[in-house]
Amino acid sequence: MVPIEDELPRTTLDRALPVPTAISREGRSLTREEVAISLGVKAGTGSVNAKTIAAKRFGLIELDPKGGYRVTDLGRRLVAAPSDADLRRTAILRVKPFEQLKRYFASDFDAIHRDDLARALIGFGVGPDRAAEAAGVLERSWSGKPARGETVPFGARGRAPFVQDAGVADRDGASPSPSIGPRDTRPSAALLRHPLVAAVLAQAPEDLAGWEADRRDAWLDLFASTVRYLRYA
């Protein structure tokens, strides 16, 4: 049995879509290295690996008998119509944990706050950090508004970035929970000294902008979720 965390994509549907697009453009199955070349990026990087694995999780590509990747019927249709809401939702629900969430909430994901998605994933057996990351991936994929390049400044290690509301910091249009009113979005000095916040900050490099976009977005998701959890738990 595949562990539930291994079934979760680490990047959004929109960021995975260039993989089947590249394979379709070449007109044949491609290895992961050939996918990287077709995308014009260095083979073996975390970004192209995450996109390729996510494309497979979303059901856009599959392994062929020779070990390469080929585009599925769903992948071909989504490449041709990337904004088709029904096709997008079909792809998202190909991810088993996301399909479990859909049945659990019995509601469209745009009506559910990211923190609630993360808590449900934890209940399914996903670790807290991975659950926060996966909830962000699901939210951005479902909304069709992928996170853009992050511009939140980050100074020396140990100094926190200015953390806006998660929906603003991620540039994804997420709405805050209806149960939470207006709030001060800058973490307090006491909050920054909390061991959980310190542990998250310790994972960041001196220059946050030097990270690949997917990894940077995941860290910002984790930081914002940690601050929210400690504030409103």
What do these coordinates show?
- Helix 8 packs across helix 9, helix 9 packs across helix 13 and helix 12 packs antiparallel against helix 13.
- About 16% of the residues have low confidence.
- The chain is globular.
- Strand 1 and strand 2 form a beta hairpin.
- Among the domains are: 76 residues, Winged helix-like DNA-binding domain superfamily/Winged helix DNA-binding domain (Arc Repressor Mutant, subunit A), CATH 1.10.10.10; 67 residues, no CATH class.
- Helices cover 52% and strands 3% of the residues.
For this entry, give a set of tags.
mainly alpha, 52% helix, 233 residues, Arc Repressor Mutant, subunit A, single chain
Quick synopsis:
By secondary structure, the chain is an all-alpha fold. Helices cover 52% and strands 3% of the residues.
Number-wise, the strands total: 2
Q: What would you give as the CATH superfamily of the domain at 4-79?
A: Winged helix-like DNA-binding domain superfamily/Winged helix DNA-binding domain
Secondary-structure element order, N to C = HHHHEEHHHHHHHHH
Runs in which pLDDT lies below 50 for 5 or more consecutive residues are 148-185
* Residues in helices, as a percent range: 40-55%
Strand order of the largest sheet: 1-2
Describe the main β-sheet briefly: 2 strands, antiparallel
Structural class: mainly alpha
**CATH architecture tag of the domain at 4-79:** Orthogonal Bundle
Q: Terminal Cα separation, in Å?
A: 34 Å
